Input
Amino acid sequence: MLYRTAGQFKTSYQADQALFPVRQDAILLGVILIFAWVVLPMTASEFAFQTMLIPVLIYALAAMGLNILTGYAGQLSLGTGAFMGVGAYACYKMVTLMPWMNPVVAILLAGVFSAGVGVAFGIPSLRIKGFYLAIATLAAQFFLVWLFEKWAWLYNYNASGAIQVPNLDMFGLWVSGPQAASVTQYYLVLGVVTLMTLLCINLTRGNLGRTWKATRDMDIAAELIGINLMKSKLTAFAISSYVVGVAGAMYVFMWKGAAEPNVFDIPLSFQVLFIAIIGGLGSILGNFLGAILIVGLPVALNLLPNALGIPISSATVEHLNVMIVGALIIFFLIIEPHGLARLWALIREKLIVWPFPY
Amino acid sequence: MIYDVFVAPFADMIEAPDFLMQVLWEGLVSGILYALIALGFVLIYRSSRIFNFAQGIMVVFAALTLVGLHAAGLPAWIAVAATLVVMFVLAVTVERVVLRPLVGQPDIILFMATIGITLFLIGFGEIIFGGENKVMITEELGIPTGDFVFEPFGGLLILQQLDVTVVIVAALLVCALLAFLNFTRMGRAIRALGDDHQAALSVGISLQTIWVLVWFIAGIIALVTGIAWGARAGVSFALEVIAYKALPVLMLGGLESITGAIVGGLMIGVLEKVFEIYWGQPLLGGNTETWFAFVLALIVLLFRPQGLFGERIIERV
Output
């Protein structure tokens, strides 16, 4: 009853292809946006900001970048962590070389650098496919992390070898560094993520998105119907790396506050890949659902023994965490290989006819 | 600059040939271990098209189980047998719980599932055996630990007997495996599945049995690799990084080829060592071993997209 689509007639193609052809979808999204923009910032605690809200948004953005490449254009990549690193280091260099720069502009520009690196490492995809390409992207992963460690210019010749986020202000408010308030950072991250999401949704719905999907489904057939594979694959690499780079810059500037090269090592790549796959490849919504699950799960598992009063050492909890995450990944893949987004699609279909079976 | 890159390293090599031989030998031994891990990958990939990311952690898990069982009081060789039983149980469990429900899913889903297995085994292993570094029971297994010392060109060349044993055992293992695949009924069934799933099923080959068998063989290879690598570097989860080294080996050799895994492993083992010693440390600040193999494989792949020995990729619309 709540989700009835009957009676919502479309009289033009434009109306039919609108972003929300079903009214309830738009209302639901509106409610979620109000929650994210108004209710959560007013009610959340410092702990919630730092362990859930900000990381979920950042991981979701990184997964969205990966999803464009893997889910829409069909090019499996295992180098996401390193591309996030490129964004973070580029942002760091920019704000330290040009301290007058607006931090948000720096974050958005940092993505351009990782897009460039992404295209360079995407060139092999024109000849290499499937798992061979996945391993080829590992070359980017290992090489870039090594570079972050050895190229002292990147971290301004720090003795520690890590990048430390300076205090940056925008219109009189501290937005990064130790003095920044979590709420400010949250709003900034939310703003960028909302913008990027809108951009990604429209890109994947448009002409470019359709060429990506054709390339994913069968690249030879795509070539035969006149799609320029080089353009399609390289734009996918560029846009994907741009989004991932922005996520990486925010990962360090808006959340971690400091980062060593090994932060961007392969576990980060896998974490983002888990989010994209468990959320659902080829879906924008899935990235958010996956991020909530993957970020929220360890937090919940850490809190649970305390809440129940079971005495467990923190090392054991850590190992149990890894084990349970592994088991859950398998579990989710078995119950729904197409991810949480598909699960939501099924629920929505049921809701449309509810309370009748069909 | 040009002199440093193109002349000086070769001059060093000619100046100290005994050192060069030592470097080549070390590279060869690590190459053999890479090849063994890659072999486990290839076997599973050939028979099921599953890119088994868990092979590396199976090496660690096998080695940990062996050391753990010995510490619990079992004699060395009985511990080996018991470890084999554990690996068999693991193979059956993986097939039952993970692979069977996922038959027919896209490759990437199965790949993710093996990453799930990896995480599970890491957590499980750390809870049961603890995360600290352990010593492999080399002497109890009767593996010699002395050195062979040669003096070629008036220099000094030290071959550890352990490494020599590893080379011999690995060679025997590969021969046994090839014989098994080529001359037994089960082996032919594995190859048939690799060629064409549906055709193999239609002549009555059981997918489940073969998958368990293949994962068990991969487990045996993992145990051998684990003993060999553990004896050189100790047993801990840090061993997992060598699993990543097997990936460029696969790329270089081709995902389906056993020959490719062996040749690729040896090539990468030797070349990365030589590059690290003669170019990496003097010019690039060292530690190039983390990425050299991948970049090398990437360059080779640009010219041969299916690897050196892989099956030619034929695509039809």
Remarks:
- Residues 193 and 200 of chain B are 5 Å apart (CA to CA).
